[in-house]
């Protein structure tokens, strides 16, 4: 193996740049040439890539986002798009791919790599922590801390103004961020896609707590489970208590990666390069039980099951 390529696909996550840096510098240390593919699969289809060196990744370890950019690419799921991507790989003598991304990125890498016999290794970077078989992904810790900082600030005004706040965090299909920040933020309720919620029961709890003298309340909702605006409106109508919605949105994707996100990026990116050098393929690297591990893509792309009841029980016990 002489030349590899690295790309970032899907939604960006804090720590992607640290992973890119580690792939490039470790690859060069291992006597490899490393090419950067811009805008994910789109760049592979349209041959938008360049050879990277030490200086190309200088000063990016503390930056959020990705210097390689990322883009949604429906063309890659069509025969013509995949054929053009493979032509780019052949033309540029690329021997293997390091794909930095989440669940959707790994599904695409699995299909493409298997179909065209291209060695692909995935590095899990996703704020949703939605990769099956591993404990945590690059960027998820940063996103949680970003959301937690916002909720801490909201609590100050919730207490001062004696209001109910519904805070919407990211998570279309996975409630990991919502669960984590609800627990760490001492919030009273959390609404996630993995569990049906009873808004009438929540309103009942709010009213009875208010009668006992509780003057503020924070509910965290994952975007895939409902709209903060709609939920806040219904709570106001039902309880006659002032309720305000807050949508954190894409602020959770950006910002400086935490030490954990950077450390994971270093460990997993170097392991991905080693996997390619060992002749391995169709794998994702990950961190599980406090050590680096590898899992096949078929396992990694299965839906990750959260221990929802355990989270809910703990939340209610400490509320």
Which tags fit this structure?
319 residues, alpha/beta, Rossmann fold, 7-stranded mixed beta sheet, 4-stranded parallel beta sheet, 11 helices, 43% helix, elongated
What does this structure look like?
The chain is of the alpha/beta class and 319 residues long. The chain folds into two domains: 3-139 and 257-300, 3-Layer(aba) Sandwich (Rossmann fold); 140-253, Phosphofructokinase domain (Rossmann fold, 3-Layer(aba) Sandwich). It contains eleven helices and eleven strands. The protein has helices spanning 16-29, 40-45, 79-91, 103-116, 140-161, 176-184, 199-211, 228-239, 259-277, 297-300, 308-318, and strands at residues 3-8, 33-37, 49-52, 96-101, 120-124, 164-169, 189-191, 217-222, 243-247, 283-288, 291-296. The strands form two sheets. A seven-stranded mixed beta sheet has the order 3-2-1-4-5-10-11, sandwiched between helices. Strands 7-8-6-9 form a four-stranded parallel beta sheet, sandwiched between helices. The protein is elongated and about 70 Å long. The protein starts with a strand and ends with a helix.
């Amino acid at each position: 193996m002489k030349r590899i390529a690295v790309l970032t696909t899907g939604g960006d996550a804090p720590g992607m740049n640290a992973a890119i840096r580690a792939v490039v510098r470790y690859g060069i240390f291992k006597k490899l040439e490393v090419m950067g593919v811009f805008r994910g699969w789109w760049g592979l289809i349209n041959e938008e890539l360049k050879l990277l060196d030490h200086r190309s990744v200088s000063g990016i370890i503390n930056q959020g986002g990705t210097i390689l950019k990322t883009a949604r690419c429906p063309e890659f799921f069509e025969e013509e798009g995949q054929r053009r991507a493979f032509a780019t790989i052949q033309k540029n003598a690329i021997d293997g791919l390091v794909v930095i991304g989440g669940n959707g990125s790994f599904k695409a890498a699995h299909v493409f790599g298997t179909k065209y016999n291209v060695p692909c290794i995935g590095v899990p970077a996703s704020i949703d922590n939605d990769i099956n078989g591993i404990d945590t992904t690059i960027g998820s810790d940063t996103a949680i801390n970003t959301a937690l900082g916002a909720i801490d600030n909201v609590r100050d005004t919730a207490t001062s103004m004696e209001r109910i706040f519904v805070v919407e965090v990211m998570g279309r299909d996975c409630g990991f961020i919502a669960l984590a920040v609800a627990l760490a933020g001492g919030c009273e309720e959390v609404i996630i896609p993995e569990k049906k919620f009873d808004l009438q029961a929540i309103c009942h709890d709010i009213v009875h707590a208010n009668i006992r003298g509780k003057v503020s309340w924070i509910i965290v909702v994952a975007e895939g489970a409902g709209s903060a605006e709609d939920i806040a409106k219904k709570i106001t109508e039902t309880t006659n208590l002032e309720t305000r919605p807050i949508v954190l949105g894409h602020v959770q994707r950006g910002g400086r990666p935490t030490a954990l996100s950077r450390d994971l990026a270093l460990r997993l990116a170097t392991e991905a390069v080693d996997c390619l050098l060992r002749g391995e393929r169709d794998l994702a690297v990950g961190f599980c039980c406090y050590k680096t591990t590898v899992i096949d893509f078929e396992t990694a792309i299965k839906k990750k099951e959260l221990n929802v009841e355990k989270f809910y029980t703990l939340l209610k016990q400490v509320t």
